[in-house]
Prior knowledge:
The protein is of the alpha/beta class and 726 residues long. 54% of the residues lie in helices and 7% in strands.
Amino acid sequence: MITTAIRVARVGSAAELAAAVLLTLAFPALMVAALVPSVPAFVAAAAVTYLADHYLHRKGSYLVNRLSKVRAGLSIRFLIRQLLLVLLLSRLDLSDSVIFYSTVACFIAFYGLQAPHGALVTLIRNRRRLPVATRNVDLASRIRIPDAPPRVLLHRSAEKVLHLDLFAVVGILLAAGTGNTTVGVIGIVLTLVLAAAYDLALAPYVRGERIPPNAEKVLAAVDDWLREYRPGTVLYFSGSKDSAYQVNMWLETMEQLDSTPLIILRERTIMERLAPTTVPVICVPGGVHLMNMDLSSVRVALYAANVGKNIHMLRVPTMKHVFIGHGDSDKIASVNPFSKVYDEVWTAGRAGRDRYAIADVGVRDDDIVEVGRPQLAPIRTRQGVPDGRMPTVLYAPTWEGWDDNPGNTSLVLAGENIVRALVQADPPVRVLYKPHPFTGMVSPQAKAAHQRITALVEQAAAERAAALAVDAAAEATAEAQAHARAELARIEARLAELTGSTEARDEAEATRDGLVDVERHQEIARLRTEWNAAYWRSFPAWEHRVISGAEPPLYDCFNVSDAMVSDISSVVSDFIASGKPYAVTDSAGLGAEEFKRQNTAVRAAVILSNSAAELGALLDAVRDPAADPLAEERAELKRYLLGPDEPRSIDRFNTAVANLALKAESRNLGQTARAAGAGADVEAGAEVDAEAEVEAGAAAGVDAEVVTEMADVLPGQPEGQGPVAG
């Protein structure tokens, strides 16, 4: 029941649900306490409302944010509590006392001070929201962007200023309970003085040198930087905050381009979630600002997603436009008819080309270029299982999706069967379970299955650890594991120092100070690589593991695994790069042949039913390469899906960029030549028309000089037409 209530209320935990319930019940309790009247009961109920409200805001609770939609927002809740306090004083027969009138006057003045506070906060935020946000772009040398107000003044400012009434409320309640008016007056004065001081602290940031430059100056500075930097290739991206991974997967590729790279984003939420990069980034939310931006040097624009805002860049004819996508699978999104608006579509291998041919959505075969998947470079190819090491099998199911299709994920129908068969395998294997980060977000059944699988893996790990506790080899590796854990702690401390040392800044400051420290960036990358290596050494090679979160990354899990079980998704296509055995679950029950016909990526896979009875074939292939009948098919499928190993994918990608840039340059030169030719033709035509006018004038008995003068001075006449022509 509690789980259902949490889901319905859309809160994150039982504690949040309890706080929401207490907040809801405390306000009626306040009213009852005021009517009784009872000062102690009022104090207790008021304390609950303050604490519950603060807790829910600190947690960013969905429920408390929705209260404003039913006219029970933050200001209303504070106002109700203050009105009930006035009611309490009245019921205590204090309506003719100094404390009563002081209370009424205090709350009126308090809300009077909140009006300028809200105006100041809004004005500061609006003025500090620049038309663009940037990273790795030198604007500081071109325009002056002042420091933001201290974060304590702007962060959750409405909640802070409203909570200043706490001094007055406490003082008034003490006065009501003890009869000491002085205490109440002191609390009232503190509340009003602090509220006024808050306004005065904000006021300097709306005048003088503390105001950031206007939009026109900022955009001019960006254009000046663009003319100096002269980007040749742009990665353009627009999407929701949850789609940031689609652009993040291309950052390393952009860093390796031979041409001068630039990333253009359209949403500030994407900018906030962008992974660290050395590539210059410009976030331009406004379509008009983007269309007026000086991108004259750009010759190639790359698009990772098909979205409506792409039109703002697609309209530029001086660059060539390419759809590169954000994954390679047989999903319908991989053959979106929108793709025909691009000059070229780049796919990983021949499979992508064939998909468009079969889908017949208007993308010409001549416009498709096979460039491989540069992101797959970290994936190591199969080396076989070294003697004496227990094989590792990765179970990486995808999530349930939005449409509740049983074929989306194996978790619900097959997940427990798969994991149970793996942990009970004989000879034994190690199981790594890495669920999709969205697992359980839509389906309660998927969430419950994930929890059961997690418990199953952890129980199997505990049983294996107990069985091998006295093993001599296990004792011999204990020291190495302890050393690895110590190394992990050292690396994590250094990473925290490098990534968490900067104070929180607003967007304008981040734009001003956003130049990357290359040495620091490289050190962070090196430390993360070392962390991944130390992580796998920090526990026995036979230990089952549940791996959640971003670290270690999926590709690192590929590299330590000897085989994988998964579902239809880009994870399967990526794993094929390793050449290792893999199995895919036919959760929808299509049958092996139909399943392979519909999904190219499973043609070299062991196809599992929901019972997972076919897992033996996968385990046989892992233990003995000679018992791997699908090895050749996997190699052929890898070439078909991802292209050849040589030349490297990043080299093919750079070649495709260079070739398309030449096409764009050729087109632009052609347009310039045609424009020049058209201008010459107009001039020649004008000379011929002028001669004809003179001849016509002479025929009419008018002097040639007069005809020429009149043609020159009469306004609004097209070239070659004079008043005597008719």
